[in-house]
């Protein structure tokens, strides 16, 4: 099913305003309390964060907040923080010691365009800037909401989330001894490495929208199902799409002998799992009625995308 014009318009508009806001955060002009912004570091950070991507994560922040009546600078800034964190993870993921990729979004990766040391520092700087943005009163005047956002992003991105998932991913390549992953292992790895940040993107909107416990849990359930669906769809694309279409190298997991749900379930089984996860995500939004239509379309979009 093709996305509605409303969905495509909102996705495009979110990408536009996020790009503008990221560019404003990544200027050479120092912020209060800073001593200086080294030009090489700033240029490399802009290379990493600007000029590409669907901006799905900030879109989810913005739309989940909008569902609960929260709009404006708060959701936009929180979305930018999640995107900065995501971009940091991509820069480090591309390093020779990790996935050793030369191409990202159709352009040279940061360690190729600059050098490995600069890429490490770019990732460090993008990560710390993400938390600075969330902690700034400009994101929300309520310190409890800012603290909740910082705590949520830290847990989603840290040892029990994305970073821990990356370690499991490296282990799955056999770097630390023979690794044979079963379905439960693959699901755990993917929930941590990819799913945790996507889930938090939705939860951040719930935090900004001052959701009650039940509403917040419904949105978290939606985010978890969307995150899982995203990764299965990504594994399918990795087998079927070209590097030119995706803007990055494909077939990496297969080359390294690392199991995915495509391997464990088969291609048709993986497609069925995508459909099941879409249904699960949509069911979690039942209490919102037609107001959640954009989020329903978002989960379909992640499994039907071609890039």
Automatic annotation (TrEMBL):
Keyword Kinase included in the entry's annotation: no
PANTHER family per the UniProt record, alphabetical: FARNESYL DIPHOSPHATE SYNTHASE (PTHR43281)
A Pfam family it matches: polyprenyl_synt
Cofactor: Mg(2+)
Top-level division of the source organism's lineage: Bacteria
InterPro entries, per database record: Isoprenoid_synthase_dom_sf (IPR008949), Polyprenyl_synt (IPR000092), Polyprenyl_synt_CS (IPR033749), Prenyl_diphosphate_synthase (IPR053378)
Name of this chain's protein: Polyprenyl synthetase family protein
Family label: Belongs to the FPP/GGPP synthase family.
Keywords: Isoprene biosynthesis, Magnesium, Metal-binding, Transferase
């Amino acid at each position: 099913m093709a996305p509605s014009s409303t969905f495509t318009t909102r996705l495009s508009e979110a990408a536009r305003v996020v790009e503008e806001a990221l560019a404003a955060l990544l200027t050479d002009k120092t912020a209060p309390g800073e001593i200086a912004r080294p030009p090489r570091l700033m240029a490399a950070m802009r290379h990493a964060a600007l000029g590409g991507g669907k901006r799905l994560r900030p879109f989810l922040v913005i739309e989940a907040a909008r569902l609960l009546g929260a709009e404006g600078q708060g959701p936009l800034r929180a979305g930018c923080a999640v995107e900065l964190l995501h971009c940091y993870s991509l820069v480090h993921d591309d390093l020779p010691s990790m996935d050793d990729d030369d191409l990202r979004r159709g352009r040279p990766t940061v360690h190729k365009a600059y050098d490995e040391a600069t890429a490490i520092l770019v990732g460090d700087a993008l990560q710390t800037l993400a938390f600075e943005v969330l902690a700034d009163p400009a994101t929300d005047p309520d310190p409890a909401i800012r603290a909740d956002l910082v705590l949520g992003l830290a847990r989603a991105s840290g040892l029990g989330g994305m970073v821990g998932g990356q370690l499991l991913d490296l282990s799955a390549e056999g770097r630390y001894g023979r690794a044979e992953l079963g379905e439960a292992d693959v699901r755990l790895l993917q929930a941590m490495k990819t799913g945790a940040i996507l889930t938090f993107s939705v939860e951040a909107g719930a935090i900004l929208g001052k959701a009650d416990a039940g509403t917040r849990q419904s949105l978290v359930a939606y985010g978890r199902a969307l995150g899982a669906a995203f990764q299965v769809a990504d594994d399918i694309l990795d087998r079927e799409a070209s590097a030119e279409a995706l803007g990055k190298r494909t077939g990496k997991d297969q080359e390294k002998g690392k199991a995915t749900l495509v391997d464990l379930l088969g291609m048709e089984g993986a497609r069925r799992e995508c459909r099941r996860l879409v249904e699960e995500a949509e069911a979690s939004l039942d209490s919102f009625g037609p107001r959640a239509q954009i989020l329903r379309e978002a989960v379909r979009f992640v499994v039907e995308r071609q890039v």
